[in-house]
Design a protein that fits this description.
With about 475 residues, the chain is of the alpha/beta class. It contains 14 helices and 17 strands. The strands form 2 sheets. Strands 1, 2, 3, 4, 5, 14, 15, 16 and 17 form a 9-stranded mixed sheet that branches. An 8-stranded parallel sheet has the order 6-7-8-9-10-11-12-13. Helix 2 runs parallel beside helix 3, helix 4 packs parallel to helix 5 and helix 12 crosses helix 13. The model has no long low-confidence stretch (mean pLDDT about 95). The structure holds zinc ion (ZN). The site of zinc ion (ZN) has 7 residues, from loops.
């Protein structure tokens, strides 16, 4: 007999008959297997049909489907969703100089729309956890990070926003205009306040903050050093851009008399609580330092191609034991903002640069799932399909026009056309069904984005 004090039975979702790529330590795959989700956790995974379980509220026949861990995005700039299609033929520094004045006009309302657009593109492309590197906080622009966090929570994405910062403007030899930066003290105080307000370190957390000064050419050495001290005092991770372009390398050598990796080392920025976006121009000694210190990399192949930055040495990074995750980067240098198609670009660009055996389809999937989880410090919780882990799962349809007949379903996902997404679970909750968001209206988001982009362009004097 049920009493008022007894907990309610755990709701279960049973997925049967799927090809399952678990991305567990042995890379186990089941050609026809099952997963049982109980609440927000994976309860069981195995070959054949699922056992009878109590309290199953939903059973899914996943014949013709591939089930993977949800994809993890390790680098993004959500606010850039409103400045897509600008500076179409520029390298990084010229692109930044063209875009900074527009970015200096953002506010919290515009960032809410941008975050919904960015999060919608990620979710509908199989992403269940995303980092975001917010680093533009104009004076009087309102609660930008709060607006982003609210926007993402509405859609149901597991979120790792960073409180970024810039304090080195033109007058101090940096790249951004003076009205786009904060003072060192303002940036540090706001970063600490963001951690105190939002950071949730618990198992299964839907929201974790990191400290993220933007880049060597927009941040003072003092802010780099003090951010590392702050992050370690608070127990949060550190994130920034590094070794993205040859121009950045030259800038570092002129100003700091050393390359980006040695600079990071000199300010306390190598460690297993640090992940760096791009790491394209890395020598063997740079890679060895990342491996020895556990420093992670967010590789962003489409953005690096869009800005003609180069191709990161992903095979060498992986061989050296560096933790590598995948990132779409900001939407102003990757207009698609989709993570699943980034798998293909990761593999193709590394093949072009480093040869036919550079990466396998399964290595690409591992980078985009468990690799990202490692980079964000979440690999005990997400990134593979194993009992006890959180139920962040992507169910891809592989028997439709574009994929039917490709026997290897992992190859079909990585090498083939963008795959339809039948179901995406984040924390056990269906947030995408049949390619549509379940918790927000996509047409409304598109309308809000168009309005916000037009407002920003008007404010910046572009229209
Ligand atoms: Zn970036």
């Amino acid at each position: 007999m049920t009493t008022a004090h007894e907990p309610a039975p755990v709701a279960r979702i049973v997925i049967d008959n799927a090809h399952i790529a678990t991305v567990d330590p042995g890379d186990t795959e089941f050609t026809s297997g099952h997963v049982v989700v109980a609440g927000n956790r994976i309860e069981a995974v195995g070959a054949g049909p699922a056992p009878e379980v109590p309290g199953a509220v939903r059973r899914i026949d996943a014949s013709g489907h591939l089930l993977t861990p949800g994809l993890v995005n390790t680098h993004h700039h959500f606010y850039q969703w409103l400045t897509r299609g600008f500076a179409q033929q520029a390298i990084l520094f010229d692109w930044l100089v063209e875009l900074y004045p527009t970015w200096a006009r953002i506010d919290d309302e515009l960032c809410h729309a941008a975050a919904q657009g960015s999060a919608a593109a990620l979710l509908t492309s199989g992403c269940t956890t995303a980092a975001d590197h917010a680093y533009v906080f104009p004076r009087g622009a309102g609660d930008i990070l709060g607006a982003e966090i609210a926007a993402v929570a509405e859609l149901g994405l597991r979120f790792h926003p960073t409180r970024g910062s810039m304090d080195r403007s033109r007058k101090d030899g940096g790249l951004p205009p003076d009205n786009a930066v904060e003072t060192t003290d303002e940036a540090l105080a706001a970063t600490e306040a963001a951690i105190d307000r939002w950071h949730d370190p618990s198992f299964g957390s839907m929201l974790r903050i990191a400290a993220a000064p933007c880049s060597p050419f927009s941040v003072s050495t003092e802010l780099m050093r003090e951010s590392a001290v702050l992050a370690r005092r608070k127990g949060v991770r550190l994130h920034t851009h590094g070794s993205e372009t040859l121009e950045e390398e030259r800038y570092c050598r002129e100003l700091f008399k050393m390359g980006p990796t040695d600079y990071f080392e000199s300010v306390g920025w190598l460690g297993d609580d640090v992940w760096i976006a791009h790491s394209v121009h890395m020598g063997d000694s740079d890679i060895a330092k990342f491996a020895a210190t556990g420093t992670g990399v967010a590789t962003c192949p489409s953005s690096n191609a869009r800005l003609a930055a180069g191709v990161a040495r992903v095979p060498d990074l992986l061989r050296a034991g560096v933790r590598v995750g995948l990132g779409v980067d900001g939407s102003a240098s990757n207009e698609a903002g989709e993570l699943a198609t980034e798998l293909r670009n990761l593999l193709l660009l590394n093949r072009v640069a480093w040869g036919a055996d550079a990466l396998t389809a399964r290595q690409a999937l591992r980078v985009a799932t468990l690799g990202g989880a490692q980079v964000l410090g979440r690999d005990r919780e997400i990134g593979s399909i194993e009992p006890g882990k959180l139920a962040d799962l992507a169910l891809w349809r592989m028997d439709g026009l574009r994929h039917a007949g490709i026997a290897d379903k992992v190859a079909a996902l990585v090498l083939g056309a963008a795959a339809p997404l039948t179901l995406l679970l984040v924390n056990g909750v269906p947030v995408v069904e049949n390619d549509r968001l379940t918790r927000a209206d996509e047409d409304t988001i598109a309308r809000d984005v168009a309005t916000a982009a037009a407002t920003l362009a008007r404010r910046a004097g572009l229209t």
